[in-house]
Amino acid sequence: MKKTIMGQGFAALRDSEIADVERRLFLRRGLSFGALSLLSGCSITDHAGVEKALQAISGWNDRVQAKLFSPTRLVEEFPESAITNPFPFNAFYGEDEIPVIDSTDYRLELAGLVRERKTWGLAELYALPQVSQITRHICVEGWSAIGKWSGTPLRTFLERVGADTSARYVGFKCEDDYYTSLDMATALHPQTLLAFRYADQILPAKYGFPMKLRVPTKLGFKNPKHIRAIFVTNDYPGGYWEDQGYNWFSGL
Ligand SMILES: Nc1nc2c(c(=O)[nH]1)N[C@H]1C(S)=C(S)[C@@H](COP(=O)(O)O)O[C@H]1N2
Ligand SMILES: [Mo]
Questions:
Q1: Which domain holds residue 188?
Q2: Ligand 1: which atom is nearest the Cα of residue 206?
Q3: 209 Cβ below 6 A of ligand 1
Q4: Dist CA 183 CA 194 (whole Å)
Q5: Contact 181, 102 (CB under 8 A)
C-alpha cells in the first residue's frame, strides 16, 4: 500500500482551508498568505497561483536554510547504551515488500559530473576506509531513534571518483524506485556516510542492504536506502517525498 501525505497539492482549497493555510504559514514562517501572494504576484483565489506561491516560499526556505547550514558543525553522537532496540523500519511500503538484492550481482553506478564512472562491486566498497557513528534518526512521521551505522564518508568516496564538488547537488536512485538528493555542502559534511553496516553487522535488508546514505544532519526521508546509483549535477533532482511537497532542504 502506498502512503500519501496530508494536504498535498492544495488542489481544491475552500475559504476555510485558505484561512488555515494562512494561519499555518503565519505561525511557521512569520508571513501571512496575503503578504505571500503580494510577494509572488499571484492571486490566492487561483489554484495555480496558490501552488506557485507555495513553491516560491519553499524555494526561499531551502535557500535560507542552505545558507544557515554549517558545513563543519557536528550533530550529537551517543554512547552504545543509548541505541534504540529494535530500531524502527520505515519505507513507502510495508516490510513484506523490502527489495531483495543479490550481493554478487550488485553494482553501484555513478553518473553526471564524475570523472571515473566505473561501477563498484561490494568487495571494493567494503575496502574503502570505514568509520562509525551513533546518531539520532528523526522521521517526519513523528518518531526518532538512535542507531549505529558504519561506512565510508561520502566525501571520501566523492573525492575518490573525481566528483565535481563545486556542483550543486548529489542525487541518489534506489532499488525500490525511491530517490532523493542533497545540497553539496551536506554531501561533503563529515558525518554524511555511505553506510554498509548497522549495529556492526552487514546492513540488513530492512535498513537498506547493501548500502544506505546516513545523513544525521537531515530528516529521515533524506537518508536513501538500497542505493543503486549516485549522480552529481547542477540540475535540481528533487526526491520521492520532496516532489510531493516535503521541504527539500529538511535539515536539522
Ligand atoms: N529506498 C528507500 N529509502 C528510504 C525510504 C524508502 O521508502 N525507500 N524511506 C525513508 C524514510 S521516510 C525513513 S524514516 C527512513 C527509514 O529508515 P529505517 O527503515 O532504517 O528506519 O528511510 C528513508 N529512506
Ligand atoms: Mo521518514
A1: 80-244
A2: 19
A3: no
A4: 16
A5: no
Report which protein residue has its CA nearest ligand 1's atom 20: 207
**CATH number for the domain that contains residue 148:** 3.90.420.10
User: Which residue among 225, 246, 250 has the greatest number of ligand 1 atoms within 8 angstroms of its CB, and so is best to mutate?
Assistant: 225
207 Cβ below 6 A of ligand 1: yes
- Name which of 118, 25, 32, 91 is nearest 226 in CA terms: 91
Q: How many domains does the chain have?
A: 1
CA gap 78, 57 in Å, rounded: 35
Does residue 28 lie in a domain region?
A: no
239 CB within 6 A, ligand 1? no
- Nine cell digits for residue 218: 537531515
**Dist CA 157 CA 153 (whole Å):** 7
Specify the residue with its C-alpha closest to ligand 1, atom 12. 221
Residue nearest (by alpha carbon) to ligand 1 atom 18: 89
Residue 46 lies in a domain: no
Atom from ligand 1 closest to the CA of residue 139: 14
Full pLDDT tens readout for the chain, 252 residues: 444 443 333 444 455 555 555 555 544 555 555 665 565 665 656 777 777 777 787 888 888 899 899 999 999 999 999 999 999 999 999 999 999 999 999 999 999 999 999 999 999 999 999 999 999 999 999 999 999 999 999 999 999 999 999 999 999 999 999 999 999 999 999 999 999 999 999 999 999 999 999 999 999 999 999 999 999 999 999 999 999 999 999 999
Within-domain flag for 129: yes
| Residue 252 in domain | no
Q: Which three cell numbers, joined as nine digits, stand for 77?
A: 553522537
Ligand 1 touching residue 133 (CB < 6 A):
no
